[in-house]
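Reference record
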Amino acid sequence: MSYFELFSLAPGFAIDKNALSARFRQLQSQYHPDNFASEDDRQKAQALHKASEVNDAYQTLLHPERRAQYLLKLAGIDIADEQQTMHDMDFLTTQMTLREELEAISSQDDPEAAIDAFSATLKSAQQQLEEIFVANYQHSQFDVAADSVRKMKFYIRLRQQLRQLEDNLLDL
């Protein structure tokens, strides 16, 4: 059973997050280990396994890059643990530029404004990559769609580094 089936959702990148959350709460309640406290060890283990599967499925479908990666996996392309090097020179140049901008934020006159601007840039780039993914996925151009997911992962790491920088600057 796919994660989409588990959550009674049509497979695709665009999902109803309210329906996802409602079904998650329902499944979480249904498979909560406390409901199986009086059952035998085998049933307890099955319930625990199912609860874990529900949590994994929810996290996968909730996050756009994970959802995209999962859709690719359903199409036979598993990029979860790969360490593929990007050969897109324009993107590599963009990576270097963004990393330099991130490093320069702490020395800005108004680092909070710089963080907000940089965050908006990252969000916009992420949205563009999601659109590229959808277009290519819908046309079964899975290799190109996979490249957009690889690029999404870079932006996610960069957003994490930005949050860490923000936390460090606010602690001063």
